[in-house]
Amino acid sequence: MERLIYNQLVLWKNDERHKPLILLGARQVGKTYILNLFGKQEFDNYVYVNCHNNDFTTSLFRSFDIDRIIVDIERYSGQKIVLGKTLLVFDEIQEVYNGIASLKYFCEQMPQLHVAVAGSLLGITLRKGESFPVGKVDVLSMYPMTYMEYLMACDKKNIVQSLFECDWRVVELEQEYLTNRLREYYFVGGMPEAVNEFLSTGNLKKTRQIQNDIIDAYGRDISKHTKAAAQRIRQIWESVPAQLAKENKKFIFGMLKKGARAASFEVALQWLVDAGLVYKVERCKTPLLPLKFYADSSAFKIYLLDVGLLAAMAQTDPKDILLGNKVFSEFKGAFTENYVLEQLKSIKNLYQYYFSKDNSQLEIDFLLQCAGKIVPVEVKAEVNVKSKSLRSFVNENDSAKMGLRFSMKLYEEQGWMTNVPLCAVEAFMKKMTDDE
Length: 436
Hints:
alpha/beta, 8-stranded mixed sheet, 5-stranded parallel sheet, 20 helices, 13 strands, globular
């Protein structure tokens, strides 16, 4: 399956000043697959070394003599490593001591070599006694497949191209098709194994089983890495569907257990964020640039990394998602808001917050910092929409020249606000960032 991050990998390869690349992301989002595909298609040869439970790698980085390390890998793999022609891939590099630290020396001693490693941010930050090679590596983040990538997997590249070009005529002509695929995406999500199963067989039970297996694997990671805090991490993790089902989606610690306090769960929450399993969107108190200056870390919303996993964790009946408009009209917009954030996270240099006032009910679902602009965003799961809060926000804040509404309606410009179809969230926002 094609992934849009592939183009960024090609740019990295062709950059004369490239550094060792760290490809970060949650488990099972496709990091190993895309690096192996990239190695096969873009290099004369690629050498793959899996550091997980591998006796060979336990002593590979005993010193930072890169020439010695290369010789050892050549003997281990039976392949010659040629500068500029070979991609050297280390998978699960966080599993081996000094693996991450060695990248500094690859950068300094052998800059011509293309080295790429796959790992989780969590695993990398947990390595005790090692220093992160700041300034000596390039970093890319990988997420579950977006809706656009799902359409590509459906072999609809022509529609994808039209969406990226914001050709609203094509979007209108293909509205029924795009809506049906969007229902599927809400059920399947973007985990590559689940996407492959559904598109290959259409088997709902097997697709849901794959999702449950992934959720179980994350549960084992929770137990493996943090035995002391495992219970608190699980409490937060398992509460996400209920937190999103509220009308006000602000995260409430009191929903975890009676009397729960933020201070007791901060480390547990950060573990989930670092693992890439949840996305934390902080409140912004004042809509001025840069939004980070006005972030309120005590108030935030939590979203799951993948809308399909959200559906599985919520034990939602597949037919309630795939048939009719129930998924859009009910569930208090939980799936739609999670879906929108999932698309936004895939876009570089796009920063997400939300806005609310202390003294009123006014709340803006997302407040984006994009290309030097503040963009207030309202998310609606249906066709019948009202945008009272968004209009008030735009009228009251000179910093926001225009509002955005993502909904099931077709594209429409209304002067103070632009309505963008839900199927075009990623395409529209990427064009907005690229055009600046």
